[in-house]
Amino acid sequence: MWKFSIRRIMIMIPQVILLSIIVFMLAKMMPGDALTGLIDPNVDPNTIAEKREELGLNDPWYEQYTRWVAGVFTGDLGQSFHFKMPVSELVWQRIVNSFWLSLLTLVLTYLIAIPLGITSGRYNDSWADRLITGYTYIGFAAPLFIFALVMLWIFGFHLGWFPTGGSVKPGLTPGTFEYVMSKLYHMLLPALSMALITTVSTVQYLRSEIIDTKQKDFILTARAKGASESRVYNRHILRNSLLPIAAFFGYEITGLIGGSIFIENIFGYPGMGQLFLNSILLRDYSVVTSLVLLFGILTILGTLLSDIILSLVDPRIRIK
Amino acid sequence: MSEPILKIDNLRTSFRIKDDYYPAVDGVSLTVNKNELLAIVGESGCGKSALAFSIMNLHSRAKIEGNINFKGQNIVNLPTSKLNKLRGKDMGMIFQDPLTALNPLMIIGEQIGEILLIHGTNSAEKRKERVLELLNKVGIPRPEHVFNQFPHELSGGMRQRVVIAMAIANNPELLIADEPTTALDVTIQSQILDLIKELKEESGAGVILITHDLGVVAEMADRVAVMYAGQIVEIADVYTLFENPLHPYTRSLLNSVPTANEEQSTLHVIQGVVPALQNLPREGCRFGARIPWIADSAHEKNPQLHEVSPGHFVRCTCYKDFHFPDRDKEGNRHVVS
């Protein structure tokens, strides 16, 4: 398995190089740069031209690209023009925020999906199943940004149970118990809103897997052994049904860092998704290119992780 | 030979199609004795497997009526908790397709061990000991190694041996083998059949062997029941059945087997197919439609089983007038001589 993983990581190298070139070129092709629009219009155009020259923005793209790549390797992702701080530092703050929010979302997603999926699959075509599939259809049909707004309006503004923005109450010292609780409190509503919508595909997935596994021959074998209904479900049906979900887990983990553009913007939560959208709007290229490159690498890693997880849980797939 | 361990009386197993129930097993009565191998033959769709599954109540949605007497109680519609004490302990089942009958995520040792665990062998050491003993018994080489293997690492024949090991793990009194060799290639078939026969001789269990292979029947069975369209049409001991088959269906089946010294170029083919469950005629001789050259008057209105000689039963009176169509001059041909 180590050999396989290393080979996969080796294949990643040309993929990442190609990705970085495309990302860099696309960013350069976007109209305008950091010196357009945000600069005081009274500044002498010659000064701006000088500044461009000084920042190397007039150099051919490959020179700029090599400079950028060299920086990436030394951990220097450049300066954010907007936030006036190193990109690496900026991204790190946001990653931490997004990570905790996404982790909570993921936990809630599975907490909802597994019991609902099992109930729905085990007692298919019962009233409970109809209720659950009804919910999944609504979940599929409702756009996340509408649903999140409704949640924000009801629980944030109308009932006032949850804060409506930010990631922590201002004025608390990091590391204290109160600080952690405040963070959790701020995350709860966005995480729940997202989990309630994203969980429906997992519920459906689990349901159909269980219904499928129920009809397999080895379930008859288990029944013929005299296994009780709970044993048949826990030992035979459930484990076989969870395989595809375990495989999907690899992608989910990389999603932890990516954050959610919709949720973070609606709830004003300072995470990666919000940073990404703002950077595009502000033409903050050094941030945009770094983020796209990061997301790209994460996606490639996610597929690798999924393969490894699947080979661990399914003995039929043993990577040599 | 005469101590019955299973007595089935007027069993009806019906499946629901749209809004009505249609019986796939329609009034079957059978007994299986200790140390006896009863073969049930018939073509696809005649209700053989439905009958076998009814005995262990493995149908997920079926209406089962009638009586199945096993170990002094009627096990039809017994609550699952009580039935589970019998399944896997006093009755074992060998399935048709060993490739799908094993859980792909469990090692062999664990799968066989599970049946011991369910029926009260709590010590893991004792279970392992017994599993290795069973693997040895069913002729698996290197049991220690196979114990830790997953089903996909074994060949079809080996997997069927595992399935058999599982079925006999608790020394059942009744063993049901549902087409145990259909999914295997011919060289493995005879090994598996020999194994089943050997285990039967050794344990004295009653065995129900479901098959459509008349060669297998001739070699293995003590008694044979021929099923057609959910009913038993003829039942006799194996010698009588092959020497003196009476029912038109039995004779047609036997006549459809190619023999080595075949002189005539075409093989006898039974016209038509078994009608679908919902189209099955519920009165008159069910086989009548497939032997249209026999006059209607030869059939009984409500065909019953008639005892023609001790232990030899035939359904309907049409056997008396039955003959093969003209082009088949040889009449019936025997598989074993």
Can you tell me about this structure?
The complex is a heterodimer of chains A (320) and B (337). Chain A has 320 residues and is mostly helical. Chain A is 75% helix and 1% strand. In chain A, helix 6 crosses helix 7 and helix 11 runs antiparallel to helix 12. Chain A is globular, with a radius of gyration of 24 Å. The mean pLDDT of chain A is 82. Chain B is an alpha/beta fold. Helices cover 29% and strands 24% of the residues of chain B. Chain B has an eight-stranded mixed beta sheet with strand order 6-7-8-3-9-10-12-11, with helices on both faces. A four-stranded antiparallel beta sheet of chain B has the order 2-1-4-5. In chain B, helix 4 crosses helix 6. The longest helix of chain B is centred in the middle third of the chain and has 18 residues. The two termini of chain B are 25 Å apart. The interface between A and B is medium-sized, with 22 and 30 residues.
Reported for the largest beta sheet of chain A, the result is: 2 strands, antiparallel
Computed Rg of chain B: 21 Å
| CATH homologous superfamily placement of the domain at 96-281 in chain A | MetI-like
- Output mean pLDDT of chain A: 82
CATH class of the domain at 96-281 in chain A: Mainly Alpha
Order of helices and strands of chain B: EEEHEEHEHHHHEHEHEEHHEE
- List the strand order in the largest sheet of chain B: 6-7-8-3-9-10-12-11
CATH topology of the domain at 96-281 in chain A: MetI-like fold
CATH homologous superfamily descriptor of the largest domain in chain B: P-loop containing nucleotide triphosphate hydrolases
Tell me about the largest β-sheet of chain B.
8 strands, mixed
Largest beta sheet of chain A: what is the strand line-up?
1-2
Summary, kept brief:
The complex is a heterodimer of chains A (320) and B (337). Chain A has helices at residues 2-29, 45-55, 61-73, 87-122, 127-141, 144-158, 177-214, 217-224, 229-258, 261-266, 272-281, 285-313; strands spanning 79-80, 85-86.
